[in-house]
């Protein structure tokens, strides 16, 4: 917890203070805690900050709100916090709501609702009890989308880790440590699947811009180039989404990116990769697909289109993206030579320029033409 007493500022709106609370939540997330952050304000001054730390402190009371309340009380020299406002990224629980009422806060503002433990209206509303000797004004929903997304990303990461632990790795394969990818952005949901028959127990990672899309939603399936992975398609994925693509899928082929990596080149038969992709599309109920493939993966794309012509609406070429600024991403999946069987089977990426925004947008417009109603 920290105090910012004496740091004056111009009057700010609720979104400004909630954005500072989000900064605290991100710090909590970086420390492995549930990402909840809080700030406490009085008379337009930032008085204190707090973030979740129950795991690190072995303390069930170490919620973000409690940390901020303690820091503010210390700064003011008074456990009563009359006239203060508290901004927190998640609806307070009963413990924190009780502490806020005891502190005599004037106002509490929260971001995302908490349907499981929220005590400001979701499960119960302690602030609405007229029998209590203090009434605190409560407002929810400020930057709720950003607050909820941060929490969702945290718990999605937990689930993925649990799945990874639950999915034992084959003796003849390797899995790149997550730490190799920690500095690389992941702006869209990344999913894993390991129970497709063609995978034979290996884990496939794939990017999905609409994981909750209804069955039958048209999709663009993007295939990275040899030696690359879905990270190198971010410019294209962003352009497709901006152009209105209902769903964009970008798998890391087995042996690449965050997917498992067999130790032997013999695994990498074109037919096996084709079958993995067909089964993935079946699993995701993607029955209308525009296939976009980098040139070095065109034989695989053509094999997929030939095997499933009723599903593939079109096959479009994409530019390989191995510009110098993407070199870190190119190396990340292969921390040593033991991970490089796919590179030996498919070849290392050729030197090529980065795909431009104009090229990506042009390709996106072409792809959208195949989704027009017939």
Report on this model:
By secondary structure, the chain is of the alpha/beta class. The chain has helices at residues 14-30, 54-57, 64-76, 94-102, 144-166, 234-242, 270-283, 298-307, 327-331, 341-346, 357-369; strands at residues 2-8, 37-42, 45-51, 84-90, 107-112, 137-139, 173-174, 190-193, 204-208, 219-223, 248-252, 261-262, 289-294, 312-318. A six-stranded mixed sheet has the order 1-3-2-4-5-6. Strands 8-9-11-10-13-14 form a six-stranded mixed sheet, with helices on both faces. Helix 6 packs across helix 11. The chain is elongated, with a radius of gyration of 25 Å.
Features:
374 residues, 6-stranded mixed β-sheet, 14 strands, 19% strand
**Distance between the ends:** 59 Å
How do the strands of the widest beta sheet line up side by side?
A: 1-3-2-4-5-6
| Helical amount | 25-40%
General form: elongated
| E-strand count | 14
Classification by helices and strands: alpha/beta
Number of helices: 11
The major pleated sheet works out as: 6 strands, mixed
Taking pLDDT < 50 over at least 5 consecutive residues as the criterion, the unreliable ranges are 6-11
Radius of gyration: 25 Å
Average pLDDT reading? 89
H/E element sequence: EHEEHHEHEEHEEEEHEEHEHEHHH
Beta-strand share of residues: 15-25%
